[in-house]
């Protein structure tokens, strides 16, 4: 195909296959990822974007990257050495399908198409199946770290076939963040496993952010400290077991002063949190897998609640507690909040890893939770010192049934539970919403309970729907003849 490109003529039939990797989609993520790739030894990067202006701009702005600029799919394919490998970084959804359709036309069996966007994992499973029929490999790769991470080193969660990992592994290792000497990328599992794990990562991120926000709110309303003073509390916390990127940036945000009003920036930002949907996907998927990710769910719902100003206005006159909320000992209260935050965070991560375990079982993926925790130690939004402890826990017991039960975390929960209860009580009495703190504590008490009122729920289910029940003292499935003489009979298990 011959095209006029600016003042030069390009011809795909004469284009040399000089690039070992290509990037399609050159908005902020794609252009930064392309620059990252180009900066690593041994990579030659071909670039393509739907509208040519972004390609022209990237070529002009970064001559040092020595990109191979291409302006058609034919030219793009011709510029890539075999097996051709292309990373798609376009708007998730229809645009991803549109680009895949074009690439499939110009690629050959054995070539590799990687979707680095935020795809919903069932879409990745569907795409992988369809593309595999052409003999081309399709890899859904979750990429975390935002635009900065894409440029300097993200955490990468690729799925797809073992064959594609052979070619792709070294390329992705060359651009990933490095934590404790290890690149933050691993072959997570087949087809949609990478995007599934990225989805859960984002769900955990929602929970972590909400917990931090609740901690800030409680400290501010309980102690009267200013945002700048609370920034110092977070900066201090960042030196201990809570050390993480999210705690670090929280201090930065709280320190920021609005240039226009001179007020703390956090006080002039509208209190309505947005969401791009990955938290909701994590919760929807957990619901269908039967995994209680209550921390992630509460965090997602908290954003929804904040974003309904009309309902909030309608409820504003609802009464709260009569008494003013002030804590007697600010330092002691702050320490309680720190412990409550750490305990709740353990629960949120434990629930997230539980969802990965259940997803792997459901979709027949072999996912190494220890490897996942190691690739989250750098590059991604939830990067934290804490992930080393998770990696240790899975190294010690790969089939750990509940992350929170690993000795390090169980000890931390035991140490923190009294403070955690005090904080939830204080929040409840003060009328300060703390859905993520409270739900994590409820999960903790639920999962450790000797006996749950689920027995009564089973009785109710049997009463109105003959759903049967099991007994604690003998094998079998039973039903009480509620509408008859109320004698118990053996029955078929109907759940
Ligand atoms: N931003 C982040 O922090 C972040 C973090 C992780 C993952 N991601 C994911 O990374 C991907 C890229 O994100 P982004 O923020 O850089 O870009 P974006 O705003 O999501 O998408 C813009 C890009 O998509 C292209 N595009 C849109 N419709 C298209 C179509 N029908 N056919 C071909 N190309 C089309 C655009 O091309 P034109 O220039 O021609 O319009 C442009 O290159 C997304 O899936 C996003 O969810 C983003």
Automatic annotation (TrEMBL):
Reaction equation(s) it catalyzes: 6-phospho-D-gluconate + NADP(+) = D-ribulose 5-phosphate + CO2 + NADPH
InterPro entries: 6-PGluconate_DH-like_C_sf (IPR008927), 6PGD_dom2 (IPR013328), 6PGDH_C (IPR006114), 6PGDH_Gnd/GntZ (IPR006113), 6PGDH_NADP-bd (IPR006115), NAD(P)-bd_dom_sf (IPR036291), Pgluconate_DH (IPR006183)
UniProt KW keywords: Gluconate utilization, NADP, Oxidoreductase, Pentose shunt
EC numbers, comma separated: 1.1.1.44
GO function terms (MF aspect): NADP binding; phosphogluconate dehydrogenase (decarboxylating) activity
Active site annotation, chain numbering: 198 (proton acceptor), 205 (proton donor)
Superkingdom, taxonomy of origin: Bacteria
Amino-acid positions noted as binding NADP(+) in the UniProt annotation, renumbered to this chain: 25-30, 49-51, 90-92, 118
Chain sites annotated for binding substrate: 118, 144-146, 201-202, 206, 276, 303, 461, 467
Assigned protein family: Belongs to the 6-phosphogluconate dehydrogenase family.
Subunit relationships: Homodimer.
PANTHER family membership: 6-PHOSPHOGLUCONATE DEHYDROGENASE
Listed name of the protein: 6-phosphogluconate dehydrogenase, decarboxylating
Species the sequence originates in: Microbacterium stercoris
């Amino acid at each position: 195909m011959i095209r006029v490109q600016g003042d030069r003529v390009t011809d795909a039939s004469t284009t040399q296959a000089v690039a070992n990797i290509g990037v399609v989609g050159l908005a902020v993520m794609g252009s930064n990822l392309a620059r990252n790739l180009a900066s690593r030894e041994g990579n030659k990067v071909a670039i393509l974007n739907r509208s040519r202006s972004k390609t022209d701009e990237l070529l002009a702005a970064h001559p040092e990257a020595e990109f191979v600029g291409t302006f058609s799919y034919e030219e793009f394919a011709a510029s890539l050495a075999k097996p051709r490998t292309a990373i798609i970084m376009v708007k998730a959804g229809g645009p991803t399908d549109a680009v895949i359709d074009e690439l499939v036309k110009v690629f050959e069996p054995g070539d590799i198409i990687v979707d680095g966007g935020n795809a919903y994992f069932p879409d990745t499973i569907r795409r992988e199946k369809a593309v595999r029929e052409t003999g081309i490999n399709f890899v859904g790769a979750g990429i975390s770290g935002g635009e900065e991470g894409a440029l300097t080193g993200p955490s990468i969660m690729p799925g797809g076939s073992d064959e594609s990992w052979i070619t792709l592994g070294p390329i992705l290792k060359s651009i990933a963040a490095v934590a404790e000497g290890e690149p933050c990328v691993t072959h997570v599992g087949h087809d949609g496993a990478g995007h599934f794990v990225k989805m859960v990562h984002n769900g955990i991120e929602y929970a972590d952010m909400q917990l931090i926000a609740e901690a800030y709110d409680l400290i501010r309303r309980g102690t009267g400290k200013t945002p700048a003073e609370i920034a110092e509390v977070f900066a201090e916390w960042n030196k201990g077991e809570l050390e993480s990127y999210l705690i670090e940036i929280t201090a930065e945000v709280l320190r920021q002063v609005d240039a226009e009003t001179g007020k703390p920036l956090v006080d002039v930002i509208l209190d309505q949190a947005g969401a791009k949907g990955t938290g909701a996907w994590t919760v929807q998927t957990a619901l269908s897998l039967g995994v209680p990710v209550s921390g992630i769910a509460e965090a997602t719902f908290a954003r929804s609640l904040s974003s309904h100003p009309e309902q909030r206005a309608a409820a504003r006159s609802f009464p709260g507690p009569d008494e003013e909320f002030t804590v007697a000992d600010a330092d002691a209260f702050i320490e309680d909040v720190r412990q409550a935050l750490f305990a709740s965070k353990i629960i949120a991560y434990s629930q997230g890893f539980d969802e990965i375990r259940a997803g792997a079982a459901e979709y027949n993926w072999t996912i190494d939770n220890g490897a996942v925790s190691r690739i989250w130690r750098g590059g991604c939004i939830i990067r934290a010192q804490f992930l080393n402890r998770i990696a240790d826990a899975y190294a010690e017991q790969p089939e750990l049934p509940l992350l929170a039960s690993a000795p390090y975390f169980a000890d931390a929960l035991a140490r923190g539970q009294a403070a955690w209860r005090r904080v939830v009580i204080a929040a409840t009495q003060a009328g300060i919403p703390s859905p993520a703190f409270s739900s994590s504590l409820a999960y903790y008490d639920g999962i450790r309970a000797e006996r749950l009122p689920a027995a009564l729920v089973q009785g109710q289910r049997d009463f109105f729907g003959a759903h049967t029940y099991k007994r604690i003292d003998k094998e079998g499935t039973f039903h009480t003849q509620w509408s008859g003489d109320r004698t118990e009979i053996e029955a078929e298990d109907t759940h």
